[in-house]
Amino acid sequence: MRPRLADVAARAGVSIKTVSNVINDFPHISTQTREKVTAAIEELGYRPNLSARNLAKGRTGVIVLGVPRLDMPYFASLAMQLITAAEAASWWVQIRQTRGERAAELELLAETRQSRIDGMVLSPLRLRESDLAERSGLPLVMLGERRFAAVDHVGIDNAAAAASAVQHLLETGRRRIAVVGGPGRTDRRVVGARATLRAHGLDLPAALHLPVRGVTGRHGEEAMKAFLGSGHPMPEAVFCVTDWLAMGVIRALRLHGFAVPDDVAVMGFDDIPYDLAALPTLSTIAPDREEIARLAVASLRRQEGATAPEVQHTVVGHRLVPRESTAATGPVPTTRR
Amino acid sequence: MRPRLADVAARAGVSIKTVSNVINDFPHISTQTREKVTAAIEELGYRPNLSARNLAKGRTGVIVLGVPRLDMPYFASLAMQLITAAEAASWWVQIRQTRGERAAELELLAETRQSRIDGMVLSPLRLRESDLAERSGLPLVMLGERRFAAVDHVGIDNAAAAASAVQHLLETGRRRIAVVGGPGRTDRRVVGARATLRAHGLDLPAALHLPVRGVTGRHGEEAMKAFLGSGHPMPEAVFCVTDWLAMGVIRALRLHGFAVPDDVAVMGFDDIPYDLAALPTLSTIAPDREEIARLAVASLRRQEGATAPEVQHTVVGHRLVPRESTAATGPVPTTRR
DNA sequence: CGCAGGGTTTACAGCGCTAGAAATCTGCTC
DNA sequence: GAGCAGATTTCTAGCGCTGTAAACCCTGCG
Predict the structure, then answer these.
(1) CB-based contact B275 A337, cutoff 8 Å
(2) Domain spanning B158-287+322-326: CATH superfamily
(3) In angstroms, rounded to a whole number, what is the distance separating the alpha carbons of residues B172 and B249?
(4) Where, if anywhere, are coiled coils annotated (chains A, B) (predicted)?
(5) Which sequence spans correspond to the domains of chain A?
(6) Which residue of A8, B67, B95, B265 shows the fewest CB atoms closer than 10 Å?
């Protein structure tokens, strides 16, 4: 049988509660006692029983992660990170998919009221500020582009990240730059891109802003195809607000005979964990996902403790990852035949 | 406060244990009582507290999934499926990475003995039959190519799947076929491919069998580069034992000026959830991962119940997914310039 | 030298559920 | 109509842990 608190207590010659106190880092424990207990724990290889702990503490040990879709590598990867981060807080993560539908997102928000979970991490796409009335006091933290005034948020500075992406394109000598993404100017990434162009005395003409109805490869391919059919002069580079879009854009470009990056450079965003055997490998912006996951869990714990925790919006870092798709010279030699 | 068993009991006018009996499907419950209880559960929206249940039942509610690496999309996707399947059995999945190292795999096997988990799903790469002595009575099920006599196994028929892949290449008119994968003939996929070639009066000459030390894009790229440098006449098609290898192979081919599938068709294996915006999209074999996950959990539950369960090796289905990389005519038009 | 006052430790009552054993209720036989 | 077997339900004791409150033990001061 695996050792229990009582076994540790007996071995250390103290009471059960003292062992519990040591484990939970309660104040007022003499160094001597602490050492005795720690030694006993070590010798017995004791590990607390989470079921019992959660039961006694009245928590369920479960948090929910709400994402649009799990087969989007960005969210799959985020989920993995969150699972790891949550484990440290003895939480396990129940993953729910919203398919980006408003109804599903509202439903999740409503579930906040049944006390079946200890907290929720939500990556909303269609939620509005006013929807948050649905919310109960349950610990909640939002991820993604949108920030809500009344709820904790963890994310990167999308505008700044997009700016550095465009900056990179400019630095590699491209001036005429198209932007793929966002059906509105609410899109921080588009905003950041546009601002950077403007700061360099350039513009984002309507023809070079390719709106999309989604962010997958298919959407990117369609948007670029539409552009290619429009007869507008080609851009020297394309900034896509997601890697998926970029993959589709590259496909469309190549199907039309354009070489990437030789004819057109393409930049993505997200650093989805695709195989680097892609051709060309994709230059992108890598949000610090591990940090996002860690801080999301930290936010939940903070809220769990306090009765009326103050709202915190946290900005985590991102990295520019230049790869082949924006290289000055492409890796693909002239084709035979 | 969320409803407890006692609340349901009060509402239905029966004892707590009766409600518990209904929930756990115990025999000897009158239809009338069952209906009363079910109604009460419904009205109150009762859901059992898993912590309490697990505590009382003496299980931990945790199973371990041991995979080589989680950033391999195949395993990420498998993990997701397993998490879903395990949820139905009130288990949550703790994911452990072995990096394909024998030591790490043995360590996991050893953990089987501390009763900290209810079961283990293992996808071993380097384990030997004899290592299983390490194993305790804990429910264990293996995934992957290797079958062990003494342990439950769930997987596809790799040889048959590889056979159908090669068959597909033959049917699209390719005769000279190379195989990338396996540093030994233990590899069922290589065996299946070779057998199919032989059955068609063809051979797998040593020059066309490209062994690899791993199964990622990098390994595929290196193997194909080495071949291209060898001066051997080109094959018309390449069958790779994983999609990742295939991505690398395609990259190497294209960097050398070969078009896929026009000059060389490439076939993968696994159907990793890559973006279909790849160019060309990858023809592959898709194992029924959902079924694998479901059956793995079922195996664990079966073993949990019995004291000396008989060993079951289960074969699940796979599908041939033809895409662009093996099409008769390629999607890439002649390049401009 | 006694006692206040703090730091430390212990006792004990649950958290919500399940597993026996015990109690009760049927319907049936004689 | 009593007696009995089997079906059905209730009683009771934990599962291993934490929170509260009370008990303990030491200083240091008067």
Answers:
(1) no
(2) Response regulator (3.40.50.2300)
(3) 19
(4) none
(5) 56-156+288-317, 158-287+322-326
(6) B95
Fold agreement between B56-156+288-317 and B158-287+322-326: yes
Measured between beta carbons, which residues in chain A are less than 8 angstroms from residue B336?
257-258
Positions 24-63 in A, CB within 7 angstroms of strand C: 26-30, 32-33, 52, 55-56, 58
* pLDDT more than 90, % of chain A: 64
pTM given for the model: 0.87
The pair phi, psi for residue B240, each rounded to 5°, is: -110, 140
**Positive or negative, the Cα torsion across B63, B68, B72, B74?**
negative
Are the C-beta atoms of residues B242 and B70 closer than 8 Å to each other? Answer: no
Please, which residues 14-33 of chain A have a Cβ atom closer than 8 Å to chain B? none
Please give the pLDDT value at position A334.
Answer: 41
pLDDT bracket for residue B186 (50, 70, 90): low
What is the helix (H) or strand (E) element at residue B126, kind and residue range? none
Q: Out of 3.40.50.300, 2.40.50.100, 3.30.70.1070, 3.40.50.2300, which CATH number does the structure's domain A56-156+288-317 have?
A: 3.40.50.2300
CB A271 within 8 A of CB A225: no
CB of A73 nearer than 7 A to strand D: no
Alpha carbons A112 and B192: distance in angstroms, whole number: 52
Q: Which of residues 38-57 of B touch strand D (CB under 7 A)?
A: 52, 55-56
**Per-residue pLDDT averaged across B91-107, rounded?**
90
Give the up-direction half-sphere exposure of residue B138: CA atoms within 13 A in the CB hemisphere. Answer: 27
Q: What is the rounded distance in angstroms from the CA atom of residue A161 to the CA atom of residue B328?
A: 43
User: Which H/E stretch holds residue B187?
Assistant: none
| A3 CA, C12 C1': Å apart | 22
